[in-house]
Amino acid sequence: MPDPLRTASGRSRAFRNPADEGLGAKIILILLALAFLGFFLVLPLVSVFVEAFRKGWMEYYEALVEPDAAASIHLTLMVAAIAVPLNLVFGLCASWAIAKFEFKGKAFLITLIDLPFSISPVISGLVYVLLFGSGSLLGPLLKSWGIEILFAVPGIVLATVFVTFPFVARELIPLMEDQGTGDEEAALSLGASGWQTFWYVTLPNIKWGLLYGVLLCNARAMGEFGAVSVVSGRIRGVTTTMPLHVEILYNEYNMVAAFAVASLLTFLALVTLALKTLLELRFGAGNAGGRH
Question: pTM, whole model, 2 decimals?
Fold first, then answer.
């Protein structure tokens, strides 16, 4: 029977390697990729900073220190400072339980963790309106105790936590599953307590993945718009985060101020991207060189 991998001349057929394409094809592909990135990524980013500084540094500075803008910056940072640690604790607990133990309902728990990825952030905010609104059971009860959820900071925090809680867990679960339980079992067999095992064995093995997940969680928390816009009530200077304040300024045709606040968000995104790249390099090097 003739070998299907041989040609009619009897020589082995050579499989084409995509990397062996001609120089012209490589140049065309590179130029297309650069043109796409330039048009859809670089050009919008540059335009944000150009518009922000169009009237000079003083106008830019005044737009950021204006009371409503300063309040939105403060609120954004405060919400992120609350939501990220909460998601860090949840992500560690959930990933530890899923990766290190077998139990009934494990697949259902993973599905619940992925839920914010599959529904619109606006729907996430609407859920809290239904739970804590004036027509709900919990809303009037909490209000009688002096606790305001909707159109207040607690509602913004809850909405932000909901849309961001998969990031840490989803980064750690595959990492912990890949590492297995051998190191922990060895530590426990040598007399280490559960806390010592976690602090000195598990945590060093996952530290770069944990930082990566926290970074992504923080970026989403600061830039969230849909869920926050539903529960905040958009009370200017009180419940408006930076993305909401940008929209308000833009709708008022205050372009310089809108782009000034947007440029600050863009700068934070670029810093996040730089840190993300450094962590990817460090995390990848750590994986290549073995566990730390």
Answer: 0.80
